[in-house]
Amino acid sequence: MDWLERAVSLRQWSRDGVRAPHKPLLLLYALGRFQADGEGELRYSAVEDDLKQLLVEYGPARPTTPAYPFHHLTSDEVWEVRTDTGTGSPGPRIGVLRSSGATGRLAPGLRTALSREPSLLARIARVLLDLNFPPSLHPDLCEAVGLELELAETDPAAARERRQRDRCMRELVLTAYEYQCAFCGYDGMIDSTPVALEAAHVRWWAYDGPDDVDNGLCLCSLHHKLFDKGVLGIGEGHRILVSQHFVGRSHAARDHVTALSGRPLLGPQPGVRPVAAAHRTWHTNQVFKGSPRAAA
């Protein structure tokens, strides 16, 4: 059985359509770390909070723990666990994983295969995404685990030489804008987890945009997409621009897009740097389409 087949064949608890994406989430997270540093060694106590958040956002509604996949993924022969005293997982109990210094990483054979054939990482990741999550979640999930699939597919040799994204930016930006869309004020959550709120780069990361709060906006999914498409922008005085090229005749289009023209951004909170003029100017010149509408 090859490594791609092993990813397809992960043993997951299943009954009556109940979701259990614990192992795929951990494996995706491990692949992201491997892509970043070539080792991907994960000490349980250091990554527990990250894995918990992944399970909250992308896992089932029922209570769950990252200790389960951290221990049980070893049975699929794609993952190994060591402790401070030697090889082998100490079991799925949270306290024991913490106290024993349990550390997990991709199995040695898989690490070797990924080093020899870097594009394998993207193929495994896409299989895990396709089998366990709808396409609408793939970009957000890749960002959450630090995976850059396009880079692995087009120029895998450069993956580790390219600058890495700051994993903390999303949380810093959402906190700065107090978990509400800077354009419309949307602030939806499920339990305590934000839903459809995203950290948008003003100057795109691909064009040397830094992972800094003053290059970020907290936006809902709709306005993030429209911002990146050039329908929306930021003008002088941090007021919202709406392109004259945008056409929307419905009440929804008018209420959610054209009515934003001229409104001030919501946030960031006092003491946090607003969007830097240089980044705002770059977006206006390189992304925003045409001329702005008159203020609503």
Automatic annotation (TrEMBL):
Gene3D superfamilies, per the entry: 1.10.30.50
Keywords for this protein: Endonuclease, Hydrolase, Nuclease
Domain HNH nuclease: 181-234
Domain named ScoMcrA-like DNA sulfur-binding: residues: 4-148
Molecular functions per Gene Ontology: endonuclease activity
NCBIfam families recorded: PT-DNA_restrict (NF045808)
UniProt-recorded name of the protein: HNH endonuclease
